[in-house]
Specification:
homodimer, alpha+beta, Arc Repressor Mutant, subunit A, Gyrase A, domain 2, 2 domains, 6 helices, 23% strand, DNA-binding
Chain lengths: 153, 153
DNA sequence: CATTATCTTGCATAATTATGCAAATTTAAA
DNA sequence: TTTAAATTTGCATAATTATGCAAGATAATG
């Protein structure tokens, strides 16, 4: 059998399919479902697959279930992040980032998740982000920090 | 020691604080950090706390780390305002409140409806609220005011 | 108060997930 | 094709997390 990559990709596709269609609570159950669909792998491989796909186990009132980690996808966007940004400006107290329409939320999430101590937080609308710096005194430093996080020169 | 609830709430607050400020990769490490902050609990209790708070362990390229679950079951939390709040911070001119994902609007409404003369207004995103104080001069007073309104000690 | 019910926690351990290593397979290179 | 490098996988087990149970603590009730 040639083309291992396709084999893995289709297995990953099935895993994502399954996780989105039913509530799976552990890997043993997951394994069974895969088997029913003709995919036989060990728990070890499944564990690796789930981590690669960013599929996580979340607690719920009635047990646990697997779901796709939304934050995981942000890393993919990071490469094109700078293309979504129109301008970064500031006054004495605030930094304002303008983005393409509908992209503010996505960009803001990256800033939030950077956990930079320079930034107190962000609020994003549709195409505008307001960034609150930790202090007004070195706001230029915060600005530099933002540019680094977003990968802008 | 009376008022167990407060004790638990402050422990939960510390847990949320820790998880949002650093990358914690397992419960043993978590336990140590809590101990450094004067909270001694077993791994079992920590496990229960994390599940109650919807804090999950997510895979990353360089290991695992805990984070607050987006789209967590807020049903449990909905009753307790203070449990929805991760941190309250400020700089010279603004106050920034971080909340659980999707809870910023709900918390902001409480602040808005308090009609406090200390607060000019709020702007809320998904998990961040910006509060604008009446004056920059006594921002700490506004901070206290907010904590009273939200029932935080 | 006294009594009962509810809640919280630790202990010990079960349940579950992650991973080092070696074998097998696949891909790349010569 | 042969050889070498890289990738994938299973096995066994380590590492980590969840939980039944009992004891103690707290809250509720009369």
């Amino acid at each position: 059998m040639s083309n291992k990559i396709q084999e893995i990709q289709s297995r990953h596709a099935l895993i994502k399919e399954l996780v989105s269609k039913q509530e799976i609570s552990n890997q043993a159950q997951f394994q069974k479902l895969l088997k029913l669909n003709g995919i036989k792998i060990t728990q070890a491989t499944l564990s690796r697959d789930l981590n690669e796909l960013g599929i996580i186990r979340v607690p719920a009132p009635n047990g646990f279930f697997y779901k796709i980690n939304t934050a995981g996808d942000q890393s993919v966007l990071r490469s094109r992040l700078s293309e979504e940004i129109i301008s970064i400006d500031h006054n004495e107290t605030l930094i304002v980032i303008r983005t393409f329409p509908g992209r503010a939320q996505g960009v803001a999430i990256v800033l939030d998740q950077s956990n930079s101590t320079e930034l107190l937080g962000t609020v994003a609308g549709d195409d505008t982000i307001i960034v609150i710096p930790r202090s007004n005194k070195n706001i230029k430093k915060s600005l530099e920090n933002i540019k680094i996080i977003l990968g802008i020169n």
